[in-house]
Design goal:
The structure is a homotrimer. Chain A is of the alpha/beta class.
Chain lengths: ~350, ~350, ~350
């Protein structure tokens, strides 16, 4: 793939400053780009690298373009524009859209035109795979599932019976959609499993990271709205609902029946307990533990960052004495007032 | 599946109040159930929904039945009874118990009657699959394993060589049983792997959630007793022992050689360090970190819940100064005493 | 496998004290070893078990050998030596190195001599598998990958396109190498996916635990140096670099572009935020949260261990009041000084 700066500017509707005949064949960082590569400036932290960059062209804001002498594409949001341009240079891993002869597809399943199904995939009864969707190798789709158009379902994904996946969804390797929720009732002799009769509903444009698990609902469905983005190793329990455009970083976990609003930014390793609600536009910092509903947009945190272990041990001991300490201060204040 | 209230009452040995000829064909929540569906009241939080419910019948306690006019089944524990009744309405995903022609089964393996083995399963030498057990697609069972009767092993599960699974066990998709424990010895040139010569032993009636990993022991086995219930994405390290009826929520992790008692309730994201013991009947709240043995039953916690980030930053700074603060208070108290 | 103490001493270059003709056929703990088994003493905690052990021979230091009457092998580091000796007693799970007839291998792939490829493996175009490497069942290797010599790739592993694995690497079941990093740019209508054009580079002698995920880089590669050891369920984000001999326990997570030094010991459930650097020889205690770069070797902690929930609730409330408490103490100190 080789493209001239002129063609780039035209294709993405951007203003070009510089040599329109120069061509590029890839993308890179400001520090590492060669003259045959495009780079971008989106974070002021890297502004100093503009002066030294060897990049053939840089995507940047009009303001930043004033301090740059090389070829430039002017963009309102250089990072978004870079993301779009970089797609040109992705290797196509699926050159021929075909159904591998080892795929086992139930007779009652409906496979649209232009679908790719990789080696050793298994697709159950009455399931429905939409146009342009790609299943890599070893994907297992249960009975009565729907996967809509232009999805990419990577290797070793399991979509359990009755689950529905929207259009343009990406499920990364090892994702498990629709395992049983963790429902148990305690009888005198031990635990009784509560059947999980709901399913999972995933909206259009969602992306789910490697080895993330999304459990089926008990009576109703577990729901991801449109454009929800989940990183790797996340656990979404039964009956959870996540609002549109919400993003969650790796290793976070949401317990049963919690409801998360739209446009939330949830850091890595966050825990959200069950049966609570988080309103729209909430940011949760890494490893925060949310035990009550949040009704006010804003940023929330809970875990203290590290100290050297020796110093931290002293703090940790004092935390356990905090209530007493507080009372001792109150006592001192009382005495102080009395002595006046 | 359609059943009359009379048949339900008889089958489950419950007292019926109302129209014994009414029929139902499903289960739902009090809020959403239609007249053709059964619901239940197990949590007083939902008592107010009794008045409005359209459910064809409700499972509830005798006491709650006094404030309800509709059809009722009287149960000592409505949630347990609901769990049992709801099983009637599960779709059977395994209508024909058969061995798929693509399953690769070692000649020395012993497969009982009435076993289902799905597409692309691989079963190793000398392994033994008990009567009524179901392996979905893409299950890999190593050499010398035993899986007893009436288990359900879902897609993409790996049971590594030499591991033993009891009867009526459910392993959800992506579970890995018997990967090597994390054993390393430091030599002058780097790490030396310590061979993991034990296996994993899983008792009857256990359930293991999606993508959970249970490592094999170093010299002895890693052991789950009977009726242990693990949620998704849990990590159980080598030589861990977990007592019967203990339940662990998603994303918890137990380090090597820890020993957990019976009837413990372990919240999500909990960490338990290695080589400690937790006695019976311990409850650990979400994301607690257990660094020492627990010898007294009860509930334990460690992580503070969230604050708004701005306020939390002030607390976080103060935590680091706690030891000094404590000493300053002591000093004030001393002076206060001297000045008397 | 049966070996005389004399042969053992010769093979491992150790000094033998005792009956050189005695033979052993296995290894065990001091407490459980029989006279046909070898054991070891590496932790002073177990010294008291020396007196009672039935072991046929014990590997221990010269110093400890003075208080032991039985057969002994003298080693500078008994645990390292035990690890090496125990390898003799591992069952060989791969007796015949062959390529299973159901493996689907692209014509352009290069498979060295003496490679084992298990049932239902899929290997993409131009990929390269080195001599002595073993792929168990259901391994998926994408296009343009290299896996060097003498690796063991366990069942259900995915190595995505373009990734490179060194020699003697072990990838445990369910490991995902090279899933897309979590790169998103926010446009007015929603999230735009940032293509992940880098790959993953794993050095010689690394070991990666079950269900661990290592994402591909955005523009450059995600890199594990030589002899990095990762436990289960770890999440390594895009562009992370981990230095040689660094060890990380289960369920830890490293966010994008973080750089971790050599010889670090990282506990379980640790979180490391993105774009920071951790120097060599840092120890992080379990569940610590690292939010800033660490430039000084040493041990760091952040989470307080558990309290009983009732007591902990009081502490938790007081933590939120800490800033105020601190100011009240300052006020008391001021008054105290004024009153002098």
């Amino acid at each position: 793939m080789k493209i001239s700066l002129n063609e780039l500017a035209t294709q993405f509707g951007l203003e070009l400053v510089g040599n329109e005949n120069h061509t590029i064949n890839g993308v890179s960082t400001l520090a590492k780009a060669r003259s045959s590569e495009l780079s971008f400036l989106a974070n002021t932290k890297y502004k100093s690298e503009l002066k030294e960059t060897q990049a053939g062209i840089v995507v940047l804001t009009r303001q930043d373009s004033r301090i740059f002498d090389g070829n430039a594409l002017i963009a309102n949001d250089p990072y978004v524009m870079f993301a779009k341009i970089a797609c040109l240079f992705q290797n196509n891993q699926y050159p021929d859209m075909c159904i591998h002869k080892t795929a086992i597809i139930a007779e009652s399943a409906i496979i649209a035109d232009n679908v790719a199904i990789g080696p050793y995939c298994v697709i159950g009864e009455n399931s429905n795979i939409g146009q342009g969707t790609i299943l890599e190798a070893h994907v297992v789709v249960g009975n009565d599932c729907t996967i809509k158009k232009n999805c990419i379902i990577k290797s070793q994904v399991v979509v359990s019976f009755g689950c529905n996946i929207g259009s343009r969804v990406i499920l990364h390797p090892g994702v498990i959609i629709g395992a049983d929720g963790f429902g148990l009732a305690r009888d005198k002799d031990g635990w009784v499993k509560v059947p999980q009769l709901g399913a999972v509903e995933i909206g259009d444009d969602c992306e789910v990271g490697a080895n993330t698990t999304i459990d089926r609902g008990t009576l109703e469905d577990t729901i991801l709205a449109q454009d929800v983005r989940l990183d790797n190793q996340i656990q979404i329990a039964h009956n959870v609902q996540i609002g549109k455009h919400t993003v969650m970083a790796g290793c976070s976990a949401v317990a049963g029946s919690a409801k998360i609003g739209n446009n939330c930014l949830i850091g890595g390793g966050v825990g959200i307990v069950g049966h609570i609600e988080i309103c729209d536009n909430v940011t949760l910092q890494s490893m925060a533990l949310v035990t009550h509903s949040i009704t006010k947009p804003g940023s929330y945190s809970s875990v203290s960052p590290i100290q050297e272990t020796q110093a931290w041990r002293k703090s940790a001991v004092r935390i356990k004495q905090l209530d007493k300490l507080s009372k001792r201060v109150k006592d001192l204040e009382r005495k102080n007032n009395e002595s006046k």
